[in-house]
TrEMBL record:
Residues 31-50 bind DNA. SUPFAM superfamilies: Homeodomain-like. Keywords: DNA-binding, Repressor. Residues 8-68 form the HTH tetR-type domain. Transmembrane segments: none annotated. The keyword DNA-binding applies. It comes from the Bacteria. GO terms for molecular function: DNA binding. It holds the Pfam family TetR_N. This is HTH tetR-type domain-containing protein. InterPro entries: Homeodomain-like_sf, HTH-type_Tx_Regulator, HTH_TetR. The lineage of its organism: Bacteria, Bacillati, Bacillota, Bacilli, Bacillales. PROSITE patterns: HTH_TETR_2.
Length: 108
């Protein structure tokens, strides 16, 4: 199913503006009214894409984590096996740390 380009654009714009606002003030201090005003949309557009501020933040975090995971996986995608002895200490430490964090494992 194709998503309308206008919907994609408004959703992307709202997320970008929310991130920008988060650099100025805390999550609690930002309002949906400020998000839509800065983005040039109305509240209806916000609510057609997200239910709450928590939902937009959750989506931003999930997308960011997914991008990070893809960047981490990229150098290893063509390998059928990874020889742990060939990894640098920092790579090995990173994977060991990541394995200890169950929240990240659900994205694999």
């Amino acid at each position: 199913m194709m998503i309308d380009k206008r919907i994609q654009r408004s959703k992307s714009d709202l997320k970008k503006i929310f991130i920008k606002l988060l650099t100025r003030r805390s999550f609690e201090q930002n309002t949906i009214t400020e998000i839509v005003r800065e983005a040039g949309y109305n509240r209806g557009t916000f609510y057609s894409n997200f239910e709450t501020k928590e939902n937009i933040l959750r989506e931003i975090i999930q997308e960011t984590l997914q991008e990070m995971i893809e960047e981490i996986r990229h150098p290893y995608k063509t390998l059928k096996r990874v020889n742990m002895k060939e990894l640098e200490a920092k790579e090995l430490t990173f994977f060991i740390t990541l394995k200890k964090m169950p929240i990240y494992l659900k994205y694999y």
